[in-house]
Each structure stands twice: as structure tokens, then as C-alpha cells.
Amino acid sequence: MSISPLVTPLVVSVTPTMPIRQAARWMKSRRVGCVAVVEGEEPVGLVTDRDIALACGVHGVSPEEPVSRLTTHEPVTVLESVPLPEAIATMARTGVRRLMVTDASGRLAGLLSADDLIPLLGEELSALGETVRSYRPTPL
Question: How confident is the model over 49-105, as pLDDT tens digits?
């Protein structure tokens, strides 16, 4: 199974030059916990509400600074065609909870978060439980 059906396609995106304060307001008004930072249609990073809280609240970064100050310079991306186990392995290997998903031309297609996977994994565990419960050993 590819990750394509699991990807959240409606991603709130901002430019690298947008002030942190404005990005935070967008996040609040759109009720999202992160925004994609894009140049044109290509992803250059993610900024989360946690990134903003720590930068501005703890480290003294001015909310008038551009969001590019908070983004990683090499975002973790995967193609929308990758199999689900590969996407999960990428999350585990890189230690991220959100993957930026791109199409074959490198444009942002959406996001895949660990939270998106929880219902699916729950279904898989439930199916496994049913299999175990219905197991009938063959008599010797």
C-alpha cells in the first residue's frame, strides 16, 4: 500500500519570508499545528506551533523574524508513491513525526503525520487480534 491515500493534501503553506507572528496567526485561524514552508511549489521546511513556542517563548527569537529562521534546511520528504512501511521507516530513522510528501516533480503533495497512521495501525492490530482469537489448533 502506498501512502498516497493517507496523505493530508490540504496543507497550509507559507513563504520563507513570512514573519513568525503571521505564520502563528495563520496556524491559529486554520486550526493546524504546523505549516509547510514552500518556495514556489517546492517544500523547503516545516514550522510547528512547538517550534514557534520554543523559539519565541524560550529562546527570545523575535516574532517579526522570518519563519525561515525556524525551518530545517533539509526537510524530510518522501514521494507519494512510497510504500507505507518505507514511510514509517523514514520517520523512525530521521526522528520526525511529519513527512513532507512530494509528487514525482518535487511539488508538495501534502503531509503525512504519525497521527495519521494511528487509526490505520489500530485497524491492523484489531485484525491481528481477530485472527489470533479465531485460531483453532489442529488436533493431533
Answer: 999 999 999 999 999 999 999 987 788 999 999 999 999 999 999 999 999 999 999
Check: pTM over 0.85? Answer yes or no: no
Structural domain boundaries in the chain: 4-133
Has domain 4-133 been given CATH number 3.20.20.140? no
Phi, psi of 100 (to 5 degrees): -85, 125
Asked if 64 contacts 25 with a C-beta cutoff of 8 angstroms, the reply is no
Q: Which of 80, 62, 78, 71 is nearest to 15 (CA)?
A: 71
